[in-house]
Amino acid sequence: MFSTELAQTLLSGVLMGLIFSLVAVGLTLIWGIMDIVNFAHGDFLMSGMYISYWMYALWGIDPLLSLPVSGAFLFFLGMVAYRLVIRRILGAPMLIQIFATFGIMILMRYLAFYFFKPNYRSIQQTLLSGNIDLHGVYLSIPQLAAAAGAFLTTGAVYVLIHKTRVGGALQATAEDREAAALMGINTDRMFTLAWGIGAATAGIAGSLLSTFFYIFPEVGGIFGLIAFVAVTLGGFGNVAGAFVAGILIGVVEAMAGYLYDPALKTVFVYVLFLGVLFFRPQGLLGVE
Amino acid sequence: MLSIDRIAVDYDGVPALHDITVRVPEGAIVAVVGSNGSGKSTMLKTAAGLLHPSRGTITFEGADISRTPAHEIPKMGIALVPEGRKLFGKMSVRRNLDMGAYTRTSRAEIERNLERVFRFFPRLSERLSQQAGTLSGGEMQMLAIGRAMMSNPRLLMLDEPSLGIAPNLVDRIFEVIADLNAKENLTILLVEQNVSEALSLAHFGYVIQTGRTVLSDTGKALLDSPMVRKAFLGM
Predict the structure, then answer these.
(1) Which CATH superfamily hosts domain B2-88+155-231?
(2) In whole angstroms, what is the distance from residue A70 CA to residue A86 CA?
(3) pLDDT higher than threshold 90 for residue B59
(4) Do A183 and B103 touch (CB under 8 A)?
(5) Which sequence spans correspond to the domains of chain B?
(6) Residue A249 distance to chain B (closest CA, Å)
(7) Cα R_g (chain A), whole angstroms
(8) Which tens digit of pLDDT belongs to each residue from A56-107?
(9) Cβ contacts of residue B46 below 8 Å, gap of 6+?
(10) B131 close contact with A: CB closer than 8 A
């Protein structure tokens, strides 16, 4: 029986999944270009949430309007993180790279604890509020807008990488750093740009989420982990794969909550994750 | 035009070149031959800026480029077709060619270079949307040379262009190199294990052994030299 409840669940899963996709795309981009897993990715998202929160709380600026600020600020922060930390550990053993991005994560998370306190905060009144009714299926307008924004941003990143000259240079750097340099591409600049774009997408996702999700210092942990799962499912470095995997995770989470128990919804995501690791370690869309 | 002057190069902390001198006059084809591991590829990588000499200098048209980073070399008019071709295998043929033109900004110039590549390698124009990684060995080498031509270099350096391609195509590749030199006025620096082909094509040749230049002369004279005949041609 195809009930409206089921339709409701599927649709909210897709809407949430689109946000997961956007977060995952930024993470997979950085991995694809320089083989580094950024453990601070979720905390870039947390920063974006707080930017929108404080601009709303202090000056009454709607998250819809603070979104570009958050994107631009995180773009800058991502580049700074690369220049100050990541650039020094490019050729280093993997453990050192893990510690470095882990260190950035801890720094950001505890700065947030220190300055913003562990309180759960939320944004109540936004330009977009309420629900729309599609034949008995209710969709929250903030969530719909967030999903649309996530979809557009993901699309923009995809077009940038696959259709533009600088995107070609990013891809070339990802495939073969030396060959890219021989083409006249400044690969260090491409790494900087990748960190900027990666962090900006997380920041934008944070602002989009801030309209309907609780804001607290550890919120990045949830999204960072789910993004990591999406990146693995989609095949490391595969932007289209991360997009599909993000939506899949959103749907699995929602369905598990609907059919079984909302408290255990993430468990099913990790079961899917382990299943794919066992049977298709290159990811669902990955090639060997 | 290019002058490699008594350079020494360390590769990952291990000395790879000890004392290499190679001069490439404008308009010439210069071949550098030597056995596997003699340092030929390291020399080209150093000239392309991927490595930097610990001693000695490299000058191009009078400017010292010993310390110039690799990504600034193409703008100066030097292109390298690297060992193993190093194509962007996941990208289309067309996008590989576009990457070759990365330092070129004039649309008209890029179009002209593209037409020139198609004139030399008509086969590439039929494969534009194909993924570069799925081409045959010979086509890959054509694309690697075509990609280097897209930056409109005055000096083209080629690292073992005959390696790993079908024998009937080897002749075609050497023909193209001769044509690029004669008709397009490109200066060529060629590193090869295919000693007889390379030296008969070249105006000047150098023999290097374990990181040192040991012999230099015109290509023809080297072909006739007892040392080359004994060491490389098995005579």
Answers:
(1) P-loop containing nucleotide triphosphate hydrolases (3.40.50.300)
(2) 22
(3) yes
(4) yes
(5) 2-88+155-231
(6) 27
(7) 19
(8) 999 999 988 999 999 999 999 999 999 999 999 988 898 999 999 999 999 9
(9) B4, B7, B9, B17, B52, B53, B58
(10) no
pLDDT in tens, A147-171: 999 999 999 999 999 999 999 999 9
Domain ranges of chain A: 4-117+137-279
Contacting B residues, span 56-85, partner chain A, CB-CB under 8 Å: 69-75, 79-80, 82
Residue-wise pLDDT for A115-124, tens only, equals 999 999 988 8
Distance CA A162, CA A170 (A): 9
Instruction: Kindly report the pTM of this predicted structure.
Output: 0.89
Whole-complex ipTM = 0.92
Q: Which of A263, A262, A284 is nearest to A273 (CA)?
A: A284
Nearest to B90 by CA among A237, A246, A242: A237
Residue A198: partners with Cβ closer than 8 Å, 6 or more residues away: A26, A27, A29, A30, A38, A41, A44, A78
Q: How many angstroms away from the CA of A288 is the closest CA of chain B?
A: 13
Class of domain A4-117+137-279: mainly alpha
* Cα(B161)–Cα(A144) distance, integer angstroms: 56
Judge contact between B149 and B115, C-beta under 8 A: no
Percent of chain A with pLDDT over 90: 66
Phi and psi based region of residue A178 (left: phi greater than 0; alpha: psi -120 to 50; beta: remaining):
alpha
One-character DSSP codes across A144-157: HHHHHHHHHHHHHH
**A265-279 vs A219-234: helix crossing angle, rounded to 10:** 30
pLDDT per residue as tens digits for the range B79-133: 999 999 999 999 999 999 999 999 998 999 999 999 999 999 999 999 999 999 9
Question: Shortest Cα distance from B70 to chain A (angstroms)?
Answer: 6
Give the chain A residue nearest B94 (alpha carbons).
Answer: A168
Residue A288, pLDDT > 60, answer: no
